[in-house]
Amino acid sequence: xxxxxxxxxxxxxxxxxxxxxxxxxxxxxxxxxxxxxxxxxxxxxxxxxxxxxxxxxxxxxxxxxxxxxxxxxxxxxxxxxxxxxxxxxxxxxxxxxxxxxxxxxxxxxxxxxxxxxxxxxxxxxxxxxxxxxxxxxxxxxxxxxxxxxxxxxxxxxxxxxxxxxxxxxxxxxxxxxxx
Length: 179
What we know:
The two termini are 34 Å apart. The radius of gyration is 21 Å and the shape is extended. Helix content is 80%, strand content 0%. It contains 8 helices and no strands. By secondary structure, it is an all-alpha fold.
């Protein structure tokens, strides 16, 4: 085994042992602090449930209504007219789903990898895109909603811009690295 493998194997047990021990020696009421944190975490979880349900229902309606397929079919003539690789249309479901839901995007990425193969252009692009973008609408709906932020106009613009840059960068990187 390599040193990195051994360190990785022992990292979490070390942290789980070290943090309470450190708190104890610094006169922190470790158990009481843990219980207080767990209570606050539960309150936050209850607070975000309506936002989470709204987001998940919206995603399901978007996909099941056929709007995603309609978007792909609308983009196909544009790709052909611009002389772009029409295989890139395979990544559109992931590019649309990624800003909405991390678990939904992971499901789409898994489907793409099963359909095209892990070493295909689309498979590599799906993997790269998963790590290059964030769940913008999920963050806005759940996290901003849980702390009461109502004005998120600029965050939405910047988040979607970052998602677009992540998509473009993913396509460029995968094209350059894997041809």
